[in-house]
Write the structure tokens for this entry.
Amino acid sequence: MNRVKGFTIFEMLIVMVVSSIAVTLSILIWLNLQKFFSKISKESETRTEILLLKDQLREDLKTAQALHMEADGFRLSNSTEDISYRVADDYLVRESEMGTDTFKVKILEIESTPTKENSKLQKDVSLIVWGEGIQIPISISIKYDSKTLLKSQ
């Protein structure tokens, strides 16, 4: 009797079960990796946003002559323009004559310290910035010359 070589039904079932387990495991691994990379991407975007905010604040402070606290943020002024930073929900909005910039960070807290010489002027502002599980403190300070301190009284 001639026997035809092939696989039995039992062998085919075993192969199908093993391959379905392998496919299921690979899909689960892929989904976990996708979640992980999504989280890392969001954290990276938040860190980039915070770095951009710190750089912009540093640039604005180079030309600022006064730092004033306001109800919803703070304002930096110099002889040519005022730049205000306003807290709005999960954003920090920077407004100047050049336009408006929006930083997608949540401000948890803003504190300031007035100068000893003039209570209208602030010598520093501390921000606690939060985004995607990252909480970073930012502290900015300004040094006044004597003319500015006397002029704004």
